[in-house]
Write a structure and sequence with these properties.
389 residues, globular, 4-stranded mixed β-sheet, alpha/beta, 7-stranded mixed β-sheet, single chain, binds pyridoxal-5'-phosphate, Aspartate Aminotransferase, domain 2
């Protein structure tokens, strides 16, 4: 597969040398029927694993009845998902998009329109954190606080500024009259599985509320049960104005969205925002199954429990090349002293799929339905690799 034939594909991804052809539960299989334990979930997407019967049935049924009709019509499946999302999040309204980046673009537009309507043209700056990741489209990319993603693509849209992670003085120094919102990940995913401090976040949110600066939580990677709570910010005891979601919500189909509270519910009006595929009935049918399966107190408790089990195993390793184990629930990072890509490559050779986050962090995002026995099997592979490196 990796020969001249694949030359037609734009050279943006460093593909791993394996041809995966099918999956079942938390396992995937290659074209020689070799089996791999999946600690990646398609980067936090396949939360129900592969070939989940309820998800496949719902998606197939929707595909065979009404696959797509466009947003000039409302359909029952999309409405059902929107109701479900606003109910479980206690938010007032939702807009459905197709990806995380697009969800964040929408959130930025909503924040700026709110500020424009109330304060006029000069209050439009979006603060974000260094080491954050918010997507690849130009505004989301500008909000992303990592220079390595910014190379070559200038000029960038105006109206963005950056705050040091967990540094309240850095936040205060950026708090001018021109700031309309801040966007945060409760646990920075691409940035190396870095959780935000509770004290930092609560002070930021308090000051934002006092100054009518909107708080946006980007829950694209850490939301929808990944950390053992519905949203990552639920661990921090704060309430945002806007929440962005994607990845795990679809369980394998592209979907994203942003939710807002009552204060913002009438800011966007017809013509202000839109997308052809957003709220596509097939993606919504899959997302409804995901919410039903993941967002129950029993499943969330199990995720917490399984995450603690994996984290405990890793913490007990006590190896010089392991600097720190971070994360919550089934979103775990292993910071090492060596190149994480090397560990990823060795894991693949031994039948385990893992992700990296930056140069030195191995990122683990197993399907949320994974059983402890499979967690243990995956851990054993990692242990063997880490002990021999
Ligand atoms: C926190 C966060 N926000 C936004 C995005 C962008 O999502 P997408 O790739 O669906 O555009 C990602 C993707 O990794 C993410 O982790």
């Amino acid at each position: 597969m990796f020969n001249e034939e694949s030359n037609c594909i734009m050279n943006t991804y460093a593909y791993l040398p394996v041809n995966l052809v099918y999956g079942d539960g938390c396992y995937v299989f290659d074209d020689s029927n070799n089996k791999y334990i999946d600690f990646t979930s398609g980067i936090g997407v396949n939360c129900l694993g592969y070939n989940n019967k309820k998800w496949v049935d719902a998606v197939s049924k929707q595909a065979s009845t009404l696959a797509h009709i466009s947003n000039i019509f409302l359909n029952e499946t999309t409405l059902k998902l929107c109701k479900n999302l606003t109910n479980i999040s206690n938010m007032s309204k939702v807009f459905l998009s197709n990806s995380g980046a697009e969800a964040n673009e929408g959130a930025i537009k909503l924040a700026r329109k709110y500020s424009f309507d109330k304060y006029g043209i000069n209050r439009n700056v979006i603060l974000s954190l260094k080491q954050s990741f918010h997507g690849r489209t130009l505004a989301a990319l500008t909000a992303t606080g990592q220079d390595k993603f910014h190379n070559y693509f200038f000029p960038f849209p105006e109206g963005f500024d950056y705050v040091e992670v967990n540094n309240i003085n850095s936040f205060k120094s950026k708090l001018g009259n021109n700031v309309c919102a801040i966007i945060l990940e409760a646990i920075q995913g691409e940035g190396g599985i870095t959780p935000l401090d509770t004290s930092f976040v609560s002070e930021v949110v308090k000051m934002c509320n006092e100054n009518d600066i909107l708080v946006i939580f980007d829950e694209v990677q850490c939301g929808i049960g990944r950390t053992g709570k519905l949203f990552g910010f639920n661990h921090l005891d704060v309430t945002p104005d806007i929440i962005t979601i994607a990845k795990g919500l679809g369980g394998g189909l592209p979907i994203g969205g942003f939710l807002c509270n009552e204060k913002l519910s009438n800011v966007l009006t017809p013509g202000d925002h839109g997308t052809t595929y957003g709220g596509n009935p097939i993606a919504c049918a899959g997302a409804l199954v995901v919410l039903n399966e993941v967002c129950t107190s029993t499943t969330l408790k199990e995720i917490t429990n399984k995450g603690a089990f994996l984290k405990g195993l890793l913490e007990n390793l006590n190896l010089p090349i392991v600097k720190e184990i971070r994360g919550t629930g089934l979103m775990i990072g292993i910071e090492t002293t060596i190149d994480a890509a090397l560990i990823q490559k060795k894991a693949l050779e031994k039948g385990l799929l893992v992700l990296t986050a930056g140069k030195n962090v191995v990122r683990l995002l197993p399907p949320l339905i994974i059983e402890k026995v499979d967690i243990l099997a995956g851990f054993k592979i990692l242990e063997e690799i880490l002990k021999t490196l």
